[in-house]
Amino acid sequence: MSKIYVTGLGPGAKDQMSIRARSVLEHCQVIIGYTVYIDLIREQFPEKQYLSTPMRKEADRCRIAFEEAEKGQDVAMVCSGDAGVYGMAGLICEIGRDYPQVDIEVVPGITAASGGAAILGAPLMHDFAVISLSDLLTPWETIEKRLRAAAEADFVICLYNPSSRKRSDYLEKACGILLESRNPDTVCGIARNIGRDGETSQILTLEQLKDTKVDMFSTVFIGNSKTMELNGRMVTPRGYKDV
To answer: What number does CATH give the domain 113-235?
Structure first.
């Protein structure tokens, strides 16, 4: 039985791809993914057959993967980060119901939350929530509800897709919602281009974050009531010192 490997590439750096992901890419002759993600690996695996579709053609991309697998060859469907975190794993499983003869394996990778946290220090040492600010697939009203719930529950919050050309004010709007129940001095952080050229990080307050411009290559972290800045690092205590 042929197989589709839904493979997380990690943040983008060669040394942040898992050994399992690398072995899958070496094994599969066909690699499918969004163009930006394929460009991360093309030089490492130049002999492969690459297939892609534009953004917002994810379902078509999945069907291409199954059609290639039906030809009897194993296929790698690649995503940045972790394929099971805002990636293609769920859609592959959904569409896979129409292709019962094709096996599916999900290969995890380092997602932006853990990759960005490592750059900033240790912001995710206690309970946290990950929320995407993209309203392409989720109504903004739902995103607002989740932001308020996470803020009121004192979760550390990690924001994916914080801004784009069409959503340039969404981070500002999100910070406004968080400030309804969070202290303006709450420690926050931004990690940009995680694991890629131009990687940067910044630690700032929630009030400062509200007026800061970010892009789609940024991951934003909002601390909880215990999060602090220690020697230039964003740290959320787990509580070990108090035991």
So the answer is: 3.30.950.10
